[in-house]
Amino acid sequence: MPIEVTKPGLSTTVQDRGREGYYHVGVPPSGALDQFSLVAANLLVGNPEGAAALECAYMGPELRFTDPSVVAVTGAELEPRVNGEAQPGWTSFAVEAGDILTFGHLKGGARAYIAVAGGIDVPEALGSRSTYALGALGGLEGRPLQAGDELAVGAGADGTAGRSAPEDVRPALPNEVEVRVVMGLYDHLLTDDGRRTFLETTWTLTPVADRVGFRYKGEQLDMVKREQPFGAGSDPSNIVDAPYPIGSIQVPGGVEPIILHRDAVSGGGYAMIATVISADMDTVGQSAPGSTTRFVAVDLDAALAARHERREREDRLRAALA
Fold first, then answer.
1. Whole-prediction pTM value?
2. Residue 161 and residue 209 in one domain
3. Number of domains in the chain
4. Radius of gyration of the chain (CA)
5. Residue 38: phi, psi to the nearest 5?
């Protein structure tokens, strides 16, 4: 029997690890903005780590279970409650037929992940169940959940209540973060002062922060004066259209840097002055409006070392929950 959505929350979507291999034709990877928390939620309930779960931003949904199951909630500090009784985060817990899952107020982070034993069973689109709302692709009818929706649950997982992720692998969720970036490809369009300002400013995340991109406010960046390139716009940050890597940072007009995330368009005419390293993209995804960020320039060796450390952290999680 399905899970009934009585209240959808602010923005709740079905997400898995994403659909790779189509970005070159304009279809972004989508998938969880905090990949580690998605994997943890699935492992806690006995699912394959890439199973489809629910990602909820800032506010949790209200769900009614029509069958017994096992559930885990990870990611943001958004207290799960069964029939009003608080349940621990990062720990699997049982629900019975007729139980109502609700959530408390957000206390840290931005996005929580709700995994159910068996996984959320929606049709695959291009090899993934992830929702890409701008393209009306994947998930439940290609959109965020609505009141009255019913979510099918897959068969085969035999979840066990009471399993917890170790404290030392759970992410910290501070309001002040450092995000590591590799400068380029177009940082030469910044003056020396502009580059210094980018790296020395404490940037504040604006309310424009969704699955497409995260916009920050702070200082004006000084850009190199130049002739308008043939085939490009007149904005000082315009370039002839180029592909955008996930995690790349644009600064239209030299103000309000934008980090492109997992639902971003695949290319366009704004210069990418830096790219967030893959190991820190979860941190960006857990940033809430009003939180502050400092960008820290690193080289490729440091980026690869950070990716290795992140994989080791996932391995410790898998070993603990094996």
1. 0.97
2. no
3. 2
4. 20
5. -65, -50
